Amino acid sequence: MTSSRKGTVYIETYGCQMNASDSELMLGKLRADGYESVTTPDRADVILLNTCAIRDHAEQRVLGRLGELKASMSATSIMGVTGCMAQRLGPKLLARARHVSLVIGPDGYRALPALVERARAGEKATHTTFDFEEHYEDVAPVRADRVKAWIPVQRGCDYKCTYCIVPTTRGPERSRRLDDVVREVAGVAASGTTEVVLLGQTVNSYRDGGHDFADLLRAVGAVDGIRRLRFTSPHPNDFSDRVIAAMADVPAVCEHVHLPMQSGSSRVLKRMLRRYTREDYMACVERLRSRISGLSITTDIIVGFPGEDDQDFEDTLSAVREVGFDDAFTFRFSAREGTPATRLPVELTVPEEIATARLERLIATVRSGARERNATLLGRRCEVLVEKWARRGELLQCRTRDFRTVLIPGADSLVGRYLTVELTGTTGSTFTGTIVTERTPLPMAVRSIGDAAPAA
Ligand code: SF4
After folding, report:
1. Which of 45, 161, 396, 398 maximizes the CB count within 10 A of its CB?
2. Cβ(202) to ligand 1 under 6 A?
3. Ranges of residues in the chain whose predicted pLDDT is under 70
4. Pick the CATH number of 381-439 from 3.10.350.10, 2.40.50.140, 2.40.30.110, 3.40.50.10140
């Protein structure tokens, strides 16, 4: 039950799932303090933008949005910026947007109610210091999604890839205790949610002092009521044999891995300080596929990294074909102030028009591979979890275990249910389907339930 004795809060979230999860924690803190959440910014007492700093474009978007939202403020509203951009820019943000009175980095959300009070009293309040012990263990998140739950298991990153701002904005890697994670997952399962997604910047490097990621997968997969277990994003170097064995053994672990590649050229990977070669990456793919049948693989790829020449880019295209990615998030390199990549010699800069042309070719290559693979899956039957209404609102959006999106006709009562559907059509990336059977959620999944996941 919410109470609005303090006022209303509106939170807009940008960036990765970790930010989505942090917004749920922030809302938990503010609800406990007496705020009521609202879904539109109009005249909300507190307007917060939880931001991403990974690319310049993301920051520009937030700056533009801060300007737009000014019109939604009442005479007593306050506006705050939280997340990675807040951590990166700190008090400088207050000067760039004078109607902003609150700036809080990812380790400062425990102090959110007190900082909001100060801002509402007319102060400019900032909190951008790191707290390497902070996991918000005692903060109950207000979850936005009733079908799946984000479970942060690790904060920060120790890798220091040369293009990445995350080690600066989120600090070094630290993991939650396995018992604490399992307790949270058990609570989520008790409330009827059957899918959890474990979150970390390099989630499979999880280590709490006594347990590794393999232990975590086994422990979470054994929680009564958890039928689907996913994780994001892993680093290729942290797929130990123990982790892969746990993925293969634990029935709830879904047959999908998001495996950031970034480039198919070992030369570029070296400059990115990804700490693996193309061959290492391919060996990792092979090890995963040899243990987990029907595994689908998605990835992240950056084009136009400084020094990337035509051959490097061709290597990326050939790697895309060789792996046969089921989907990819593709980006043009964006130099972030404060990252090592900005110190590379200026003559290595890839001209914008070349980077743009490469991005277009890359997208076309990813899409045509995915389209070909998806066409071979038509007619298959598979288990889906109904997630929500699709954006256009006429069809329900469902997800297969191997992370394919299927749109089906149906009723609101199906959201959160597991169904068997037949894949009847594809646009290339998304499927349409028809219901074959409706099933009620089971307390524990076993992989032999339902039909095999489609092969990638
Ligand atoms: S692994 Fe690299 S890209 Fe990923 S968060 Fe860490 S530094 Fe950034």
Report:
1. 398
2. yes
3. 1-4, 439-456
4. 2.40.50.140
